[in-house]
Design brief:
Chain A: It comes from Maribacter sedimenticola. Chain A: Its cofactor is FAD. Chain A: It holds the Pfam family Pyr_redox_2. The complex is a heterodimer of chains A (448) and B (526). Chain A has 448 residues and is of the alpha/beta class. Chain A contains 12 helices and 25 strands. Chain A has 3 domains: 173 residues, FAD/NAD(P)-binding domain; 119 residues, FAD/NAD(P)-binding domain (3-Layer(bba) Sandwich); 124 residues, Enolase-like, domain 1 (2-Layer Sandwich). Chain A has a 5-stranded parallel β-sheet with strand order 3-2-1-7-19. Chain A has a 5-stranded parallel β-sheet with strand order 9-16-10-11-12, with helices on one face. A 5-stranded antiparallel β-sheet of chain A has the order 21-22-25-24-23, sandwiched between helices. The longest helix of chain A has 15 residues. Chain B folds into 3 domains: 84 residues, no CATH class; 281 residues, no CATH class; 87 residues, Alpha-Beta Plaits (2-Layer Sandwich), CATH 3.30.70. In chain B, 62% of the residues lie in helices and 5% in strands. In chain B, the strands form 3 sheets. In chain B, strands 2-1-3 form a 3-stranded antiparallel β-sheet. Classes of the chains: A alpha/beta (448), B mainly alpha (526). Chains A and B meet through α1, α7, β21, α8 and α12 of A and α12, α22, α24, β7 and α25 of B.
Chain lengths: 448, 526
């Protein structure tokens, strides 16, 4: 029986294992040094905040793995030897494979800051990071201030976590406005305000210079490039992540930033594959990045590779881009591509609407000449994935999207709806006369 | 703000403390006229019991109802035993000893409590309400900007099965045990609400009136908490208002007013088989003897169960009843909200649920079948089994212990919907309709789920919502009561409760939206 070994029990590896099991009777082994069972990394924050217990982050009950004959090995892979198809674990055992899948995810970036390895300095990625944070910052007596470095999604999550225990937080963001490499300026500005409203000391356009230890060697302060010294007990390093692939150095597998793979998720070595955060495409797929550290893409790669491993070789061919996040109380969804001013091309035009009082706004991107709808960012309004996916498939024009925007609304029942206000603003700005159509189940569920 | 909360919790505990002490104190002075009246009203024919009561009770003053109750219960048991031995069947007393004690006590209360009903109401209910509101209302400020407010739920003793939760559990269970099995201890409580009862129905309050009034008060206060906690979520606000309205108006006020108008006591929204004694002989007789309104109620009760309930479930899902109208649901969604995370999500619990709830439905239906057979054929037994005994077993085991003591008493330990999930026969019936013939579903938003598990954690019905959402499947489960919390706590906007076309409602998927279109078609084809 063919033996598939998957290194890493995150969403990519586990999705792959589940699909392989559905399609075949192959022997499957998942190796992880992080946890006994698969858990949802995105939910770690809720454990610290007391919304959940750790066991609630585990999507499958413990019996699931045995029942589906997915063998779980807890161990750290030190070395891969593709020539003899053997992997070496840290406890000096070896396992041999027929197919090997690398799904080891990411690790937090550390950019060589002085003091970055001091006790009290940590990232927030793994289960161990969560446990460390629980020790470093159990309450606001032990941790009287935390400094978070890096204005991305993990940074703002970590700030929210610490604020849930009333720990003062200073948030150092390199950019002039939060996440403005991704978000257009109107949205980025709204998030800046929201961060401040949550009593987070947001320092834009500020870089970390040095982390300073106290007499015991623990962190006691940081200095910034603005010449300030901020006293703190914890430093959170959340300036992005990088593929977790150091153990593959010298294995003969071609590495770049991540494990280099072709469109079939095959590495340079036969029978070795890579999926998820740690995989790096030779060439980026349409407007995506070569390394995509996103939950959804990890899952999609798992879904795809399972077909290949079970005899139906398939290219990884993701559909339209989508993503979501939550910035403190503000939910964010995106469908298609909306680029920030920094990254957008000339033909990409934006229409922006923001609620006069609430934290609600949308940005619709469309092609300046053809009026083709390119994508939407939505904050504080939920929208239907299927509808936007369909409109993107059909290359609909922006006017069509606005006309039928009510079909796309996914907010709970009784919520105030803003489509009329949105379309009114669009009409005024573009001297148009679009009449928004009423929500129609027929439109929503039509497959065409 | 914190100070206000501390004052609030202190006042609340004082009120609760006085309320808790009441069953054990008070003076009960039983004079001859009271005793004669009770004996006449209860048509007691046992000379032994009457003699005992005359010598041991009449003219005496009791401190605390337990002394009185002890004598009455023992005398009644002894008298009945003797009558049975002597085959004096006509003399056997069928009133329960504790009910008789409660009746005597109610009439004979004297002293401070019975004499100062208004003041005592204020010292118990009044302090409780003011204290609770002082604790709850500052949350408007303390909770910060509107949004999901679940911080610390698993850190606090009260909501994480800590010692406070166990104390609440102990209190609730004891309260229900008194209510169902030791009504005489509730006598002092009835005095507190006598003025309210008299203004509504014209009668002094019994212990069930205390319960009904308290139910409304608790729901109202905890509804304020809901409004504050979910102030960003209009669905929760509207739903809470609805469930509160139906409790206060339909379950509490209308039945009391009907009594004043010489009509039968009836809760128009309480549908059979949750209202399990609707077809019991005494109820049918009482309805048939109440003229037009009685016939109307009989007709309405049958139409409600056979037509209104299923048709509404078809259009809106069982939520229209379970989380918008029902009294049990109303308490669960207000008082029970802090405990919703304790429902067991395991597959094992789901199996237990299906056996139990359908078992209770079957029990209720068989019992009702026997009841109706007995009613029309005017026999007391069906196939040699006494209908009355089956009814008694159901009333005790399901009606009192399961629905009351376990259903509510176990809130802090097993979550707020134990009865609704494992026991309610009406929920089982609604569930069939919802699962097989309804427009209701919780739509999963394409591929947006990140498996975080907030939805499953906060599902009061123990549905593993995530198991469906992470596969891109809609949630169509018979047990879903449509409270809408899964959708509220979802950080990525994945879930939406909606009523739509039946086609495509159930949509099994393996590969989620967002991936290769060909692959999705290949794998999702079933």
């Amino acid at each position: 029986m063919e033996h598939i070994i998957i290194i890493g029990n995150g969403i990519s590896g586990v999705t792959l294992a589940r699909h392989v099991r559905k399609l075949s009777d192959k022997k499957i082994t998942i190796i992880s040094a992080e946890s006994d069972y698969f858990f949802s990394r995105t939910a770690l924050m809720y454990v610290y905040m007391g919304h959940m217990k750790f066991k609630h982050t585990q999507p499958y009950e413990d019996w699931f793995w045995k029942k589906n004959r997915i063998e779980l090995v807890k161990g750290y892979v030190e070395k891969v030897d593709p020539a003899s198809k053997i992997i070496h674990l840290a406890n000096n055992t070896t396992l041999s494979y027929d197919k090997l899948v690398i799904a080891t995810g990411s690790k937090p970036n550390r950019f060589g800051w002085p003091g970055q390895d001091l006790p009290g300095v940590q990232g927030l990625y793994s289960k161990q990071d969560l446990e460390t944070l629980e020790k470093n910052a159990p309450n606001n007596t032990v941790c009287q201030r935390a400094v978070i470095v890096g204005g991305g999604l993990i940074g703002i999550e970590m700030a929210e976590m610490l604020r849930s225990r009333k720990i003062p937080v200073t948030f150092l963001v390199r950019e002039k406005s939060f996440w403005n490499g991704v978000l257009p300026k109107g949205e980025s500005a709204m998030i800046n305000q929201h961060i401040l409203a949550h009593h987070i000391d947001l320092r834009l356009d500020t870089n970390l210079k040095e982390i300073i230890p106290d007499e015991q060697g623990r962190v006691k302060a940081v200095t910034t490039d603005k010449g300030e010294t901020i006293t703190c007990n914890v430093v959170g390093l959340t300036a992005g992540v990088t593929p977790n692939i150091d153990f593959l150095k010298g294995s003969g597998i071609t590495l770049g930033k991540g494990v280099k793979v072709n469109r079939f998720l095959e590495t340079s070595v036969p029978d070795v594959y890579a999926i998820g955060d740690c995989a790096e495409q030779h060439e980026a797929i349409d407007q995506r990045r070569p390394v995509e550290a996103v939950w959804y893409t990890g899952r999609m790669m798992g879904e795809t590779l399972a077909q290949t491993l079970c005899g139906k070789r398939r290219a990884y061919n993701p559909g339209h881009w989508f993503n979501s996040a939550k910035f403190l109380d503000i939910e964010y969804q995106t469908y298609g591509w909306v680029f920030s001013e920094r990254n957008k091309e000339d033909h990409e035009q934006h229409f922006h609407w923001r609620h006069p009082k609430e934290n609600i706004c949308i940005t619709i991107a469309y092609h300046k000449e053809t009026n083709r709808f390119l994508g939407i960012n939505t904050f504080g309004i939920r929208m239907r994935h299927e509808i936007f996916d369909r409109w993107l498939n059909q290359n609909k024009e922006v006017d069509h999207v606005l006309t039928y925007l009510k079909d796309a609304n996914f907010d709970p029942e009784f919520y105030t709806q803003y489509e009329d206000a949105i379309v009114a603003k669009y009409n005024a700005e573009h001297q148009k006369n679009i009449d928004p159509k009423k929500k129609s189940w027929k439109h929503i569920f039509s497959k065409a | 703000m914190k100070t206000l909360q501390h004052i609030g919790i202190t006042l609340f505990l004082i009120g609760l403390g006085i309320f808790t002490v009441l069953p054990f104190v008070g003076t009960f002075k039983v004079d001859q006229t009271i005793l004669d009246q009770v004996i006449a009203d209860s048509s007691i024919k046992s000379d032994l019991l009457i003699n005992d009561l005359q010598t041991q009770v009449a003219g005496n003053e009791f401190n605390g109802v337990h002394h009185l109750s002890g004598i009455v219960v023992t005398s009644l048991e002894n008298a009945n035993a003797t009558h049975r031995k002597n085959k004096e069947y006509k003399k056997i007393v069928y009133v329960k000893g504790r009910d008789l004690a409660a009746t005597i006590a109610k009439k004979s209360g004297s002293g401070f409590i019975a004499g100062n009903k208004g003041l005592m109401w204020f010292l118990t209910f009044g302090l409780g309400i003011i204290g609770a509101l002082l604790f709850i209302v500052p949350q408007v400020v303390l909770l910060g900007p509107k949004g999901i407010k679940n911080d610390g739920i698993y850190h606090q003793s009260s909501t994480n099965r800590g010692w406070i939760a166990w104390l609440v559990f102990l209190f609730l269970v004891s309260f229900y045990l008194v209510l169902y099995f030791r009504p005489e201890y509730a006598t002092n409580w009835t005095y507190l609400v006598d003025p309210i009862s008299e203004s509504l129905s014209g009668n002094p309050a019994g212990h069930w009136f205390v319960y009904g009034f308290m139910y409304c008060v608790v729901m109202t206060v905890m509804a304020v908490r809901m409004y504050i906690k979910y102030r960003h979520n209009v669905y929760q606000t509207v739903r809470t208002t609805s469930v509160l309205f139906f409790q206060i108006v339909f379950a509490f006020l209308i039945p009391e007013i009907m009594v004043r108008l010489q009509m039968p006591y009836y809760d128009f929204k309480n549908a059979f088989p949750l209202d399990y004694d609707f077809f019991f002989q005494w109820n049918l007789k009482s309805l048939l003897n109440s003229g037009g309104i009685g016939i109307f109620i009989l007709f309405w009760g049958i139409i409600l169960t056979l037509v209104i309930v299923p048709v509404m479930v078809y259009f809106f899902g069982k939520r229209w009843y379970c989380s918008w109208v029902c009294g049990c649901g109303g308490l669960a969604e207000t008082l029970g909200d802090p405990y919703r995370q304790h429902s067991d999500k395991s597959l094992f619990a789901w199996k237990v649920e299906r056996w139990l709830i359908h078992g209770v439905l079957l029990f209720a239906l068989v019992m009702t079948g026997m009841t109706l057979y007995s009613f029309f054929s005017e026999t007391g037994t069906v196939l040699g089994i006494k209908t009355q005994s089956v009814q008694n077993v159901y009333s005790l085991a399901i009606g009192s212990i399961f629905a009351g003591v376990i259903g509510t008493g176990f809130y802090p330990i097993f979550g707020n919907r134990v009865w609704c999930r494992f026991g309610c026969p009406l929920a089982a019936y609604l569930g069939f309709v919802q699962r097989f013939k309804s427009r209701f579903r919780i739509t999963t938003n394409g591929g947006q789920c990140i498996s975080c598990g907030n939805c499953s954690t906060y599902c009061e019905q123990g549905i593993d919502v995530r198991a469906y959402a992470q596969k891109g499947e809609n949630i169509v489960r018979s047990s879903c009561v449509g409270c809408g919390i899964c959708s509220a706590v979802c950080p990525r906007g994945v879930l939406k409760l909606e009523n739509g076309p039946e086609e495509g409602r159930i949509n099994p998927t393996e590969v989620l939206l967002g991936n290769d279109v060909d692959l999705m078609e290949l794998v999702n084809k079933k």
